[in-house]
Design goal:
Elements: H1 2-18, H2 45-69, H3 75-95, H4 103-125
């Protein structure tokens, strides 16, 4: 019984460590097969409320990197996406900084994420 509990704790700790998202290098191929899977682990209410936004930021970063690699966007366009993703990520981090949802900051974060999504849609249409 104790061994099972210990394993569960270790698995949870490992997954929590994987939840930290790192910026994508603009010159890196996003995946070998052209397909990426993204998941966001939520361990509390604030994380659960922001998980979709975090995932959208991650996907935007990866799409920009892939589009840059494929020559569909310029380095400057990719940098603009990365800068918008940085802004959205910082706002999302601030929304949960105290362990509880800061509604005002969360609203700002979601607006930043919406701007990022709009930027990606504009880039995709070109």
């Amino acid at each position: 019984m104790k061994a099972a509990a210990l394993i569960a704790v270790l698995v949870a700790a490992s997954l929590a460590g994987c939840a930290a998202q790192q910026p994508v290098d603009l010159q890196t191929k996003s995946s070998v097969f052209g397909l990426d899977a993204v998941a966001t682990l939520a361990t509390n209410e604030c994380e659960a409320r922001t998980a979709a936004d975090y995932t959208a930021v991650i996907v935007a970063r990866r799409r920009a990197a892939a589009q840059l690699r494929d020559g569909r966007i310029s380095v400057d366009q990719a940098k603009a996406v990365q800068a918008a993703a940085d802004e959205a990520r910082a706002a999302l981090d601030a929304a949960c900084a105290g362990g509880k949802v800061d509604e005002r900051v969360l609203s700002t974060a979601q607006q930043a994420r919406a701007r990022l999504t709009q930027l990606m849609e504009t880039r995709h249409a070109n």
